[in-house]
Amino acid sequence: MVNDRARPVPFRGGGFKHKPAVAVSLLVFVVLILFWEVGSRTGFISNLVLPAPSEAFTALLQLIETDMLWKHLSASLQRLILGWTFGTLFGVCVGLLIGLFSIVRAGLSPLVSAIFAIPKIAMLPLFIIWFGIGEGSKVATILFGTFFPTVIATYGGVDNVDRTLIRMGQSFGLSWLSIVRKIIIPGALPAILSGFRISASIGIILLVAAEMIGAEFGIGAYILLAGSLMATDQLIAGVSILSLMGLTMAWLIGKAENYFLKWRM
After folding, report:
1. What DSSP designation does 230 have?
2. How far apart are CA 242 and CA 81, in angstroms?
3. C-alpha to C-alpha distance for 256 and 171, rounded to whole angstroms
4. Phi and psi angles of residue 212, each rounded to the nearest 5 degrees, phi first
5. Residue 55: how many CB atoms within 10 A of its CB?
6. DSSP string of 8-37?
7. Which of 1, 66, 169, 236 fits 56 for a cystine, CB–CB 3.0-4.6 Å?
8. Is the full-model pTM beyond 0.85?
9. pLDDT tens-digit map of 210-244
10. Which residues, including other chains, have CB under 8 Å from residue 64's CB and lie 6 or more apart?
């Protein structure tokens, strides 16, 4: 017997609606930490190679008690926020220009593809020559590294907007600016925000590389010092802070996706 009432299938633009399972995420994390801790205490994992999580947590507490955590974290966050914000802002603007105007695409698209392939860490010595050993070179490295993936994600998102929607807007007499504002930009937002996730990870990687050269404070400088002293517990503590920074940025971008992409739910 066929059920008269069809069961609705939740669907969104990117596929079936995601059901968050926070308990599963926490369980996986706890199991990994417990395995690591037990392995370190039983000798299965050598403390010389990988110290126990409890030792790294103790090193993190010492960092907090000496008030050095805020000094390192504030320096890193300032560089990351400045570099990533301006890099993504400029990247979205240039990406939209490439996606919307053929003459701009012809001029800039090959240039973006050529420079994007260059390892951005290799540009750091050049930025030090241009901007000095201070904050300018570090922010410029992050900005440069986050700019290009954002450009590519943005004009790729513009290219993938359904052309049927654009023709529909034209048939209703919408102006060019209205089509861009109401159809193209919302349609490209999923790709742009995905590009933000990628550029955020790249920004953290470049942040550490930049801080390992001539920085007194910063998580990268702290990790470099811990490595030179063979203090693996402090090194793991520093890496954990970077991981938390990445998780925080991913959470913030996820909140932005929930807010700006309500239409696809």
Report:
1. T
2. 14
3. 32
4. -80, -5
5. 18
6. P--EETTEEPP---HHHHHHHHHHHHHHHH
7. 236
8. no
9. 888 877 888 998 999 888 888 888 899 999 999 99
10. none
